[in-house]
Every structure is written in C-alpha cells, then in structure tokens.
Amino acid sequence: MTQTVTVTGMVLSSAPIGEFDRRIVLLTKEKGKISAFAKGARRPTSHLLGIVNPFSFGEFTLYEGRSSYNLMQGKITNYFTELREDVEAAYYGFYFMEFAGYYAKEYTDETESLKLLYQSLRALLNPHLSNRLIRYIFELKLITVHGEGPQVFSCLGCQKQEGTFAFCARRGGILCENCRKGEPDAIPLDNSTLYTLQYIVASPVEKLYTFVVSDEVLKRLGKILKRYRDVYVDQKFKSLEMLELVADMKD
Questions:
Q1: pLDDT per residue over 121-131, tens digit each?
Q2: Into how many domains does the chain fold?
Q3: Of 17, 42, 43, 189, most Cβ neighbours within 10 A?
Q4: What range does the domain containing 154 cover?
Q5: Model confidence, pTM
Q6: Cα separation, 242 vs 247, whole angstroms
Q7: CA atoms within 13 A on the CB side of 241
Q8: DSSP conformation class of 186
C-alpha cells in the first residue's frame, strides 16, 4: 500500500537532478524542513513542472519512502509571481527563504516560521513598506521564534525597565547606562528604536508589517541586526551577498 502524506508548505529551493528530475526543499508546518524528489519534473509535459519552483506555497502530497520523500502532486495557492517581476524584491525573497532554511529542522513544528515567511513575502509586494524594514523585521522575528532573540524589555544587568539603554549584541540585549560600562561597542538606543525592537519581538506575525519608521531608526535597526547576526548566526548567506550588491547598485 502506497504511504502518502500531505503537508502545507513552501518550496525553499529547487535543483536539477539527473536529466529530468528535481530535488526540492520544503518548509512545512507538519514536518519542518524536508527534501523531496520530483521525478520527471523537468519534462515539459510533467504535471509537476509548475509546482517545484521557489516561492510556491500550498499543499504537497508526498510518497514517504524509507529514506526519502517523492513529490506526487501539489495544489499551489500562491506562486508569488509578482516577486519575479522585481529583481530587488526577488533577492529579498531568496534571502528570506535561505535564512528560514538555516533555522528550520526536520520533524519540528515550523508553523510560526512558515507563517512569518509567507507574510514577509507578501509584505515585499506592499509599495508603502521599505524592503529594508521588512528584512530587519523578518530577521529579528525569525531569530526570536527560534529562541535566540535578544532581551529588549529590561536591562540584562540589573533588570531595570525604564531609562536610557544601549544594545549590546555580545551580551544579547539591552543594558542601562550604568551596566553598559565596559561595553564600548554597545549601540545607544533612542526611544523609537527601543520601542520598535520591543514591538517586533512581542507582536504576533499578523501584526508585524503594519508600521513604518524614520530613516534614522531604520539605519540603527540595520546596525543592530548586523551585529546580532555576526554573533549568533554562524553562516554566510550567498543570497544576502547578492541582495546587498543589488541594493547598493540601486542606491
């Protein structure tokens, strides 16, 4: 008897295998990050041809073998085709998928990660939101979802909750003026930047992409997230390198 399973997820990547097949990586709610072989998906007449591309979101029916999955069919509800029409937005999207894939594991509940990825890709299609802001929100929230987010509600040293703070990536959060002594690299925080950090960390995914910030806050967020990634994320992302190159050319 054929053992099949249906999962809800998104294609993170797709690579050719042999002459006609593809190997895809899926981020799924039910089984975390898994790989599956799509046999014959590169044939022009294959019914799998349109469902194995990155960004494809929907339901995927898989044959669960002893050591691998095989893609049988899929029902795609969103291809995110609009992203392919905007080079910069597409690179942001590829980076989001690679970053999500870095944290996701097999057989873990990735419901929140998948929801965040989906909503972040949708946000990239919103002309009223800065792509850089979307990126910083995505990075911080994904890190938080996976239990490695910074402490941004009280001083790491004395637990003080009011006053003037600075962000220390090495310590993993905010420090008051007194406790930040000895941390020359700590980034001073204005109230707007601190509130933005707190809002991103605490808010549900559905409410993340509902605000804008000033250029100064955006710049400070970028500095904070870069330092935090340097400390806690031990991987270089090719898509991020390409994204920054494209963004610099645009600027």
A1: 999 999 999 99
A2: 2
A3: 189
A4: 82-250
A5: 0.94
A6: 9
A7: 4
A8: P
